[in-house]
Write a structure and sequence with these properties.
Blueprint (H helix, E strand, L loop, with lengths): L6 E10 L7 E7 L4 E5 L6 H9 L8 E9 L2 E2 H7 L2 E4 L14 H11 L4 H14 L15 H13 L5 E5 L7 H13 L4 E4 L3 H7 L2 E6 L2 E6 L1 H7 L9 H9 L11 H11 L1
Parallel strand pairs: 3-8, 3-9, 6-7, 7-8
Antiparallel strand pairs: 1-2, 1-4, 4-5, 9-10
Helix pairs in contact: 3-4, 9-10
Pfam families: ABC_tran
Keywords: ATP-binding, Cell membrane, Membrane, Nucleotide-binding, Translocase, Transport
Protein name: ABC transporter, ATP-binding protein
C-alpha cells in the first residue's frame, strides 16, 4: 500500500444490541502518522474501536453504529473491500484455527485459502517466523505452546498474509519482559500501519506517532505522546516511567517532560 495512511473518524458511536449504554460515543479523530497507540481503562471502548474497524462489530457481533470512518479518503467498507485488515485479539488462542497439527500448518492455513503455491507459502512462513523468532517452533503443536509463544504465533498468523492495516489488542499481555522487548523492537521495523492497544506506556511513547486516549467510550485526547503524557490529567491514567523520572529530576526538553528513554537521555545531557 502507499506510504501515506490517513484514518479519519467523524462522530462515531457504537451500541451493541441488547445493551443500553454506548460502547463508543461521538468519537472524532484524525491520525497523524502510521503508528497509533491506544490507551484507556478496562471496558473503555478500545477493543470495540478495533472490532468496528475490522468489520467484526456490526457483522459478526450484532451492533449498530453511526458516524463515518474513512481511510485515505475512502469509506471504511469500500477500503476494506480492496485491502486486508488483520486483527489480533486479546485472547491469542482464539486467533488460532484449532485444526492445525503444527505451527507451520497454522501459519499456512490462510495462505492456502488464498490459493498460494507451496513455494509462496514456504517463503511467507519463513519471512514471518524469522521476524518473530519462531523458526524453532514450526514443528510443534499449537496446543503445546506457552502463553507467550501462542501470542507470537497469533501475531504471525496476522502478518503472514502481509495485511495493509494491523490492529493489535494488547499483544504483549502474556509475554515475559524479554519477549515484550523483542516484540516492540520488531514492531519498530514494521512498515505496515497499525493501531495498538497496550498498557506499556514507555514502549508506546517511544514507538508511536500518536496516542489516542479513550475512557467510558469517549475519546479524551488524540495527539503526540509528548503532548498527551504532559497534558493528560486524569487519575485513571498512569504516566511513562521516563516522564516520572524527568519530573522528579526537573529535566525538560522543549518545555516538556521527556516521555521516553531517548528524550530523557537527551534532556539529561542538555542539563550538564
Amino acid at each position: 500500500m502507499s506510504n501515506n495512511f490517513q484514518l479519519t473518524i467523524s462522530q462515531l458511536s457504537l451500541r451493541y444490541l441488547g445493551f443500553e449504554n454506548l460502547a463508543l460515543e461521538n468519537i472524532s479523530a484524525q491520525s497523524r502518522g502510521k503508528r497509533i497507540g491506544i490507551i484507556g481503562p478496562s471496558h473503555a471502548g478500545k477493543s470495540s474501536l478495533l472490532a468496528l474497524l475490522a468489520g467484526i462489530a456490526g457483522k459478526m457481533i450484532p451492533a449498530k453504529f453511526s458516524g463515518s470512518v474513512r481511510i485515505n479518503g475512502e469509506e471504511l467498507e469500500a477500503w476494506r473491500s480492496q485491502h486486508e485488515i488483520a486483527l489480533l485479539l486479546q485472547d491469542p488462542a482464539s486467533q488460532l484455527s484449532g485444526l492445525a497439527d503444527t505451527v507451520y500448518d497454522e501459519l499456512s492455513f490462510s495462505l492456502l485459502n488464498q490459493g498460494k503455491s507451496d513455494e509462496e507459502i514456504e517463503s511467507a512462513v519463513k519471512r514471518v517466523t524469522d521476524q518473530l523468532d519462531l523458526t524453532n517452533l514450526l514443528d510443534q503443536s499449537p496446543n503445546q505452546l506457552s502463553g507467550g509463544q501462542t501470542q507470537r504465533v497469533a501475531i504471525a498468523t496476522a502478518l503472514v498474509t502481509e495485511p495493509d492495516l494491523l490492529l493489535l489488542d494488547d499483544p504483549t499481555s502474556q509475554m515475559d519482559p524479554l519477549g515484550r522487548q523483542h516484540f516492540f523492537s520488531w514492531l519498530e521495523k514494521l512498515s505496515c500501519p497499525f493501531l495498538l492497544i497496550s498498557n506499556e506506556l514507555d514502549d508506546l511513547a517511544a514507538l508511536c506517532d500518536q496516542i489516542w486516549v479513550i475512557k467510558d467510550g469517549c475519546l479524551l485526547m488524540a495527539d503526540s505522546p509528548q503532548t498527551v503524557f504532559n497534558q493528560l490529567d486524569d487519575p485513571a491514567f498512569d504516566k511513562p516511567a521516563a516522564w516520572k523520572m524527568a519530573k522528579k529530576l526537573e529535566l525538560k526538553l522543549d518545555g516538556c517532560y521527556p516521555v521516553n528513554a531517548r528524550e530523557l537521555k537527551e534532556a539529561a545531557e542538555n542539563a550538564n
